[in-house]
Amino acid sequence: METLTVDLCVIGAGAGGLTVAAGASQLGAKTVLIEAGEMGGDCLNYGCVPSKALLAAAHAAKAMRDGARFGLANGPAEAVDFRRVHDHVRGVIEAIAPQDSGERFEGLGVRVIRAAARFTGPRELQAGEIRLRARRFVIATGSRPAVPPIPGLDRVPYHTNETIFGLTDLPEHLLVIGGGPIGCELAQAYRRLGARVTILEAANLLPKDDPEPVDLLRRRLRSEGVDLYEQARVTAVENAAGGGIVAHVEQGGDRKAIAGSTLLVAAGRRPTVKGLNLEAAGVAYTERDGIAVDHRLRTTNRRIYAVGDVTGRHRFTHMAAYEAGIVIRNALFRLPAKIDDRAVPWVTFTDPELAHVGLTEAQARTRAGRGGIRVLRWPFAENDRAQAERATDGFVKAVTTPRGRILGATIVGARAGELIHLWALAIGQDLKIGAIANMIAPYPTLGEASKRAAGSFYMPALFSERTRRLVRFLGLFG
Ligand SMILES: Cc1cc2nc3c(=O)[nH]c(=O)nc-3n(C[C@H](O)[C@H](O)[C@H](O)COP(=O)(O)OP(=O)(O)OC[C@H]3O[C@@H](n4cnc5c(N)ncnc54)[C@H](O)[C@@H]3O)c2cc1C
Question: Is the dihedral of CA 283, 285, 287, 288 positive or negative?
């Protein structure tokens, strides 16, 4: 058995682990990166990348069918060749994979070990045939799909995000358990590619988002033919007599049996803590919420940090990467860098896209108390670029203090994921609403909707009787 002693040992080569390992080794730390599965983790192999590639194909299929809006002939509905769509998705993964590969990281000076890591003490672990001691450890083992305790689920075939992108045939009728971001994105993608799709959601669609933009998305999904059941509890699933799956659903006292050909479980995530033997390392965790960390991302063992999905804080690639930066500053530079959660953005990549940063209106109201808040809005229907592109379904909504400090923003509509950047910057940098209102925005762009929403902050004061009187008075001086 080989024994290694290094400065930094990173467990998990997904978004968080890769960022820590690349940074640490380029800063001169002797670094080991341990990966039990595929390099690149969930995002590259079973998450962001394949889902966005599938959605791109789905949106293209929809655009072909919808040519008439622009005075073009509509393309045929049967133009989708699902096997080639699958190959396109694989091709995108393969195009990005070299960035995350073992070879690239070895080239950066990282020792990459392809094995499962298991702690054997507070300062050591074992990975395959290697025993390893390190000055600091970073746990970045991510999350896995949660499997809800639905009677019968263990006796029917079902997909999760780890298997669904391997399908080479279009499902005839996809039943999706879960109406969170993953469920919504995949439901729309499969529907636009020609499958029948039913979403079964125990609460409401996208429960973490502001209900106002979610409603717009809900209406769009329904208008495209997605069957959507909310407040619907799946009480059991079973194999159907003629093949396929039957889901038994209870909704507001009604019971229904819904048959489909293929089942996708997208009912949340669980942190990957199993097999790490965290007890030996003195790292506190729970199976549900993951590894407990402080504001510097230190675990209960001060030499061990945790980043990304395994902490259960935020489950986004960009947050794993952000947290990696905080850990590098703490672990290598010994700077007391703290996480700042004021400007955490997220996007659901449906059409329309739904993007959010900072506080929702409801959160802002609760925190503001008697001081109150201002809610600013601008509809895409009053944006010339949205009109030109026939993408008028959408709006910008921002929440500020009465004095114009920006607390949060939500955008639903075309390219909302790009438009939210401005608001993430503004909140992160403590800019006031005037900074956005006074910005010169190029015409015609969707981004003008953000400027107009910000400008609406001043409208009540600007167009008040008092201002009119002032203008009339100044007019007296020639
Ligand atoms: C379908 C889907 C779509 C998504 N879309 C988006 C999106 O559009 N935007 C976004 O920001 N986020 C998205 N996410 C979330 C994003 O994928 C995760 O937040 C991100 O991958 C988390 O990175 P991570 O480094 O924490 O973990 P991961 O990327 O999961 O990496 C963890 C790695 O650790 C390895 N590992 C686990 N245990 C061990 C062990 N004991 N020893 C060694 N290795 C181990 C695993 O094999 C894995 O490779 C999506 C997720 C899914 C499922």
Answer: negative
Mean pLDDT of the chain: 96
Q: Which of 340, 313, 360, 319 is nearest to 207 (CA)?
A: 360
Instruction: Name the segment(s) of the chain with CATH classification 3.50.50.60.
Output: 2-39+101-144+270-331, 153-268
CATH topology of domain 153-268: FAD/NAD(P)-binding domain (3.50.50)
CA 158, CA 261: separation in Å to the nearest integer?
10
Which residue type, as a one-letter code, is found at position 197? V
As for ligand 1, residues whose beta carbon falls within 6 Å of it are: 11-17, 34-38, 41-43, 46-48, 51, 116-117, 140-142, 161, 182, 272, 275-276, 308-310, 315-318, 320, 349
| Residue of 11, 33, 34, 48 with the most ligand 1 atoms within 8 Å of its CB, for mutation | 48
Q: Tell me the β-bridge partners of 410.
A: 356, 397
- Ligand 1: which residue has its CA nearest to atom 12? 316
Residue 1 is predicted with a pLDDT of 85
Which fold is adopted by the domain 346-460?
Answer: Enolase-like; domain 1 (3.30.390)
Which superfamily does CATH assign the domain made up of 2-39+101-144+270-331 to? FAD/NAD(P)-binding domain (3.50.50.60)
What token pair was written down for 232? 């619907």
Q: What does the pLDDT read at residue 363?
A: 95
- Given this model, what pLDDT does residue 283 score? 98
Instruction: Give per-residue pLDDT as tens, 25-61.
Output: 999 999 999 999 999 999 999 999 999 999 999 999 9
pLDDT at site 235: 98
Amino acid at 112: V
3-state helix, strand, coil in the chain (%, to 5): 40, 25, 35
